[in-house]
Amino acid sequence: MLTFKRAFSSGRPLLKNYGFIGLGRMGLNMAQNLQAKLDASDKLYLYDVNEAAMDLVEGPNVVKAKNVGEVGSECENVITMLPEGKHVRAVYDELSQAVKTAGKNDGSKLFIDSSTIDVQTSLNTARKLREENVGMFIDAPVSGGVVGAKNATLCFMIGSNDLSRVKPILEHMGAKLVSCGEPGAGISAKLANNYLLALSNIATAESFQLARKLGLDLNVYSQIVNTSSGRCWSSEVNTPAPGTNPNAPSARDYEGGFGVALMNKDLKLAQDAAKLSNLNLLLADRASEIYDQLEADPNCKPKDMSVVYQWMDK
Ligand code: NAD
């Protein structure tokens, strides 16, 4: 059954409906970019439990859905950007139910989940939607943060070998689409990457602390490390020592950036994924203790994760 052709035999355009669920820091920007680039004839259904968020995406083709179910029954392509696995499970149960109740479970719908969640939830959701003929579920988490979401420069890590259906949608919101392999491969890539980030953030902060204690000028040290073998994203872009990088969160008292709680969440997800794969991550437990302590500290919790540099001074 071909559901993606753009015209009936009469030549009349076939309207295509898109849905976006989860309009938070990331999703709102992504939905705004999608809205701006859709064909005028395509509708964009929005849903968030926070109703006010739906008012922030404007356009003649925008529909504020009454609930998740309406998005499921009305839209051929649905994108979700939710906080955690439990939200994804709840939303997809509701979507599936609505599609089945509307008798539209012919397997033609496309669901793209860009949330950072556990691999099992992602795989189980894909399997359930496939078995119930509700549609195809593809994991496509992102890197690039809120700035990338705003500028449509996100990198999508996609759990599919075939990008033909997702590309025309995701390229409205991102600059790089990477096919990572089978279902679950996108979320696996995201968790493996963020495990490295969790460690390199702490290691970079310690390295700058060491340089400081050894009496080095940290601006000089920053130049050295960023042209030497220690260079990484945390040293170059997210430089933790205040005064060494005017564009890093450390230059603005660690405001904005990638929050401590999000980093801690992703680290725990990576640890769980490793356990399920019988892999002992040697550095994870200590890193996890550090992020737990940062999260428990009200001065650090709302800040960018590079605040760990300042916390080390205590
Ligand atoms: P957020 O908390 O700002 O937004 C989540 C949104 O989902 C909120 O608006 C919330 O109201 C909505 N929501 C929750 N439950 C819902 C439900 N049942 N139905 C409808 N809406 C519901 O989170 P965020 O920062 O936008 O992150 C979203 C996901 O992207 C997370 O998994 C996060 O780990 C990942 N991520 C975030 C960043 C970042 O820098 N913020 C970067 C990469 C990936």
UniProtKB/TrEMBL annotation:
Keywords per UniProt: Branched-chain amino acid catabolism, NAD, Oxidoreductase
Protein's GO biological process: L-valine catabolic process
GO molecular function, one term: NAD binding
Similarity comment: Belongs to the HIBADH-related family. 3-hydroxyisobutyrate dehydrogenase subfamily.
Enzymatic reactions: 3-hydroxy-2-methylpropanoate + NAD(+) = 2-methyl-3-oxopropanoate + NADH + H(+)
The protein's enzyme class: oxidoreductase
This protein's name: 3-hydroxyisobutyrate dehydrogenase
Active site: K190
Residue span(s) of domain 6-phosphogluconate dehydrogenase NADP-binding: 18-180
Pfam families xrefs: NAD_binding_11, NAD_binding_2
Domain 3-hydroxyisobutyrate dehydrogenase-like NAD-binding residues, every copy: 184-310
GO CC aspect terms: mitochondrion
Lineage: Eukaryota, Fungi, Dikarya, Ascomycota, Saccharomycotina
Keyword field contains NAD: yes
Pathway terms, separated by semicolons: Amino-acid degradation; L-valine degradation
Enzyme Commission designation: 1.1.1.31
InterPro entries associated with the record: 3-OH-isobutyrate_DH-rel_CS (IPR002204), 6-PGluconate_DH-like_C_sf (IPR008927), 6PGD_dom2 (IPR013328), 6PGDH_NADP-bd (IPR006115), HIBADH-like_NADP-bd (IPR029154), HIBADH-related (IPR015815), NAD(P)-bd_dom_sf (IPR036291)
This protein's record includes keyword NAD: yes
